[in-house]
């Protein structure tokens, strides 16, 4: 029942450092919200809602919604807590070490007694992270069908299946995010003074971790399983793209006869250029998410075995949070149609001169 000694260091304590952190958080929240609002607007306004490209856009919309929730709920809550710590003497009830242990008062694993905002913010951040990686996995599967089975993609990728998989990914992601609270009574959620976010905190027995502390390993296990599957599917797709490109190059040089293959260099069912470019874009999304999530996985593994890593936890969590504003940058660089949609979006308010045709 005693508060732990302060764990914060030069990186995470002091009025100046908190002020800089608040400025960084506000800027990041603005970038996340604006970027994903633009993404949602551009994708929603497209007219390809019932085509395979439209189904890919539905997955991109799901990804943008998850990212925007981080900018609307998670980051502003950290800003509010940091400002509260600067202007008040007593830390809020959800601050690390300020809440009482729920193990003796709750029969639901600390889910309702006492309730505080971290019980909402923590699962939202974890759930949105899981939604992001599961959506990237689904996008990779959709592109692999378009690359490997282009003649069957209309039959395999349907509107109903796409929406069902999106709903399942959201439900499974938030169920996993709540797993430590649902299946254990030895965890709570507190605002961590190192990461400056709401994190799962094991309830210590003396100085020992609870016997079921390994349940936190579900988080990196789930993410790296999906990331590994995504990487494997990308390797298969890019291998097919490379083989097709080599055959097309040989055909153009006259070193390979057409052979009745329909002009595809021995590849009668060749993927379209847009399918290939979309697959490469999703590969970049996968690499960006893997790079941003890896520090979190290392931190969780170290936390389970008893390490604190205060400075590292701050950078790990906020690198992952910063990934929520990266997708719009990747779309803008890789997709000229997305850039055109953004241009049209910002030019819409400029009315043409009177009498001029639009």
Automatic annotation (TrEMBL):
Any single Gene Ontology cellular-component annotation: synapse
Residue intervals passing through the bilayer: 20-44, 56-79, 120-141, 162-183, 215-241, 282-306, 312-333
UniProtKB keywords: Cell membrane, G-protein coupled receptor, Glycoprotein, Membrane, Receptor, Transducer, Transmembrane, Transmembrane helix
Compartments reported by the entry: Cell membrane
InterPro entries reported in the protein's UniProt record: GPCR_Rhodpsn, GPCR_Rhodpsn_7TM
Domain G-protein coupled receptors family 1 profile, residue spans: 35-331
Its membrane topology: Multi-pass membrane protein
Family: Belongs to the G-protein coupled receptor 1 family.
Protein name stated in the entry: Beta-2 adrenergic receptor-like
Species, as recorded: Seriola lalandi dorsalis
């Amino acid at each position: 029942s005693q508060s732990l000694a302060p764990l914060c260091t030069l990186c995470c304590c002091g009025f100046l450092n908190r002020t800089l952190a608040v400025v960084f958080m506000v800027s990041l929240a603005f970038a996340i919200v604006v970027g994903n609002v633009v993404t949602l607007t551009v994708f929603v306004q497209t007219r390809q809602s019932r085509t395979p490209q439209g189904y890919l856009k539905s997955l991109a919309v799901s990804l943008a919604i998850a990212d925007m929730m981080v900018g609307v709920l998670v980051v502003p809550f950290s800003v509010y807590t940091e400002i509260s710590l600067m202007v008040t003497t007593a830390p809020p009830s959800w601050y690390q070490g300020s809440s009482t242990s729920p193990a003796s008062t709750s029969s639901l694993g600390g889910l309702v007694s006492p309730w505080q905002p971290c019980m909402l913010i923590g699962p939202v951040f974890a759930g949105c992270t899981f939604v992001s990686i599961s959506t990237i996995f689904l996008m990779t599967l959709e592109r692999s069908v378009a690359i490997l089975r282009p003649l069957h993609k209309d039959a395999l990728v349907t509107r109903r299946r796409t929406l069902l998989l999106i709903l399942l990914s959201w439900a499974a992601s938030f169920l996993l995010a709540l797993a430590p609270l649902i299946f254990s009574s030895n965890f709570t959620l507190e605002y961590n003074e190192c990461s400056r976010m709401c994190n799962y905190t094991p309830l210590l027995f003396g100085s020992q971790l609870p016997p079921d502390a390994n349940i936190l390993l579900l988080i990196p296990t789930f993410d790296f399983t999906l990331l590994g599957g995504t990487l494997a599917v990308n390797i298969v797709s890019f291998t097919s793209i490379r083989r097709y490109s080599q055959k097309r190059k040989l055909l153009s040089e006259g070193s390979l006869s057409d052979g009745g293959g329909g002009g595809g260099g021995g590849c009668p069912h060749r993927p379209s250029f847009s399918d290939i470019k979309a697959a490469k874009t999703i590969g970049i999304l996968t690499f960006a998410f893997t790079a941003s999530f890896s520090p979190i996985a290392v931190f969780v593994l170290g936390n389970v075995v008893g390490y604190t890593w205060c400075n590292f936890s701050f950078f790990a969590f906020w690198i992952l949070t910063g990934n929520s504003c990266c997708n719009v940058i990747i779309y803008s660089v890789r997709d000229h149609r997305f850039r055109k949609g953004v241009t049209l979006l910002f030019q819409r308010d400029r009315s043409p001169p009177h009498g001029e045709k639009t």
